[in-house]
Design brief:
8 helices; 0% strand
Length: 242
């Protein structure tokens, strides 16, 4: 494995450990009991297995975590609560572990420019939508986030699509796939942003964490990207095939 990919993989591993830590804290703040120490231990083991073995999507580790967590979460006869906690922990580990695997696979395939461009258009979409919502009145999308308007979301989506079509042309992506990918990134990016806001609202906090000071936590920086990445990766693979 190239040295650069290995170094980036270690940085991403640390980043995802921080994301997992914040996510578990938010879940607990929502009133759902999960064993955060167990979850962090299992996620760290998943990452170490992938780094040391080079394997992706470690299903065996995930299945083991499901069985182990189900045993450790048992509280008397509260099987419903135990299964809810187990399911949430398992889903969190499965999704974040898969996103990490997709990122590393994309890097191994040399998709540095594509990844960077993908994140930049999501930042541009969020920025334009936020500025529009502050400067102009419009119909609020949801009470979850009163500053997000339909008009602002549309403006952000147009900017994201325009930027992506321009970038995709230089990457040799088929036009029809680039259009679908740009539209999907704009829509799913908004959905991911709203889901992050809903989770924080339920937890009764403004930010996912305090690691980045006034900017909030790590999830605040990557909520849209975490939700959109699988869709983006699929269309990048299909759209760049010769």
């Amino acid at each position: 494995m190239p040295v650069l990919v290995t170094a980036i993989e270690l940085v991403l591993a640390l980043l995802f450990v921080l994301i997992t830590r914040e996510l578990f804290a938010l879940i607990v703040s929502c009133g759902i009991h999960i064993n955060r120490r167990l979850g962090m231990l299992l996620f760290t083991l998943m990452i170490l297995v992938q780094i040391l073995s080079g394997s992706r999507f470690p299903a065996a580790m995930l299945i083991s975590s499901l069985v182990l967590s189900n045993v450790l979460f048992q509280r008397g006869n509260d099987y419903a609560g135990s299964m809810l906690s187990t399911t949430i922990l398992f889903a969190s580990l499965l999704y974040l572990g898969s996103i990490y695997s997709i990122l590393i696979t994309a890097l191994e395939q040399g998709k540095y420019v594509e990844l960077g461009s993908f994140y930049l258009i999501l930042v541009a979409r969020d920025t334009v939508a936020g500025i529009y919502g502050r400067l102009f009145s419009g119909k609020v999308m949801t009470d979850i986030s009163p500053r997000k308007t339909w008009q602002g979301s549309l403006a952000g989506g147009i900017v994201a699509l325009s930027l992506w079509l321009w970038m995709a042309k230089g990457m040799g992506m088929a036009y029809e796939y680039a259009v679908l990918q740009g539209l999907g990134a704009g829509i799913l990016g908004q959905v991911g942003d709203l889901l992050g806001s809903a989770l924080k609202r339920t937890a009764g906090v403004r930010h996912s964490g305090s690691l980045l000071g006034r900017m909030g936590g790590v999830i605040d920086m990557f909520d849209s990207a975490l939700f959109t990445l699988p869709f983006w990766y699929f269309f990048t693979l299909v759209g760049t095939q010769k």
